[in-house]
Sequence to fold (355 residues):
Amino acid sequence: MTLTGIQVQYFRNFSHLVLSFDRPISVVLAPNASGKSNLIEAIRLLSTGESDRAKKIDEMIAWNSEFARVSGTIHTEQEHDDTIEVLLTRGVVNGVKVQKRKVLLNGVARRRKELHGKFPTVLFRPEDMELISGSPAHRRAYLDDVLSQGDSDYAFSLEQYQQALKRRNALLDVLREGRTTRASFAFWDATMIKHGGILHEKRSQFLEWMQRDVSFPISYQIQYDSSQISEDRLRKYADAEVAVGYTMVGPHKDEIRVEQCDGGTKKEIALYGSRGEQRMCVIWLKIVALTYLHEKLDQKPMLLLDDVFSELDERHQSLILPLLQMYQTILTTSNPESVEKMKDAQQIQLNNGAF
Fold:
């Protein structure tokens, strides 16, 4: 699977951008704050239908526009071309109320979750160092991203679970104010228990697979601290949840810890690993994602490297460079010297939203 071209209109600092990708490796050279990450964000939008950076759709739309549009052409391994298009609005265009987000596949409107697996991508950016050293939310987001792209059932259950969680948390506030009863929780409790169980099972299977089937110079072991959700546990925490105003059990509270194994000893990387060891573990997690999606979907995902070579020394870079020969890669950098070895790569000069 190959992204052969992308068109961007009124997205972030791009008013109109058309790019073709004619080689397996494309290097985007640009000064800082000129739009490199915006291009990567646009590609990810085609892949997942959402942003890894923006909390609101409005943030992705150029300040002087009512809409943004991103369209990409994907050449599949079945030797045909698919077009994915994502339209974003502020809710009103030319005085008419419209959807804030619309996804089209080959010109036909689709639900956002139907994008998952159509154009898989793995993103690696400097912020991903938080995958190990940051809060558990970073590691849960990693699992959700990889599994949603590789498993449509997981994507559906995640969507249902998150919607139920949002509604249930809102009900807790209403219950504390005395404006509803426990009976109003029944539907949302049942929804969370059903889909939370599916998320737990699929996360467990993936974590077992990643320790068994991925080759890497260093051995890691995953500790999965699962927050099980059931009627009994919801009942147990019922009073405490009303006091704090949020649901205290379920997959949204899972923790994943990574231990580095060296002979007979183990150490938790987040607590005792050096910065270099943490970087190495993040690289392993990205290789895991690429391997899983390739195996699960029987097609090669795209690798997106957003200014990561600035964070990696030669040893760490040596683990990344072979991947560029295996997967279509788009790499951004502000330092031409960091990509001197990539002589066959397509080079794209970008400056203030233009090339």
Remarks:
- Residues 45 and 154 are 19 Å apart (CA to CA).
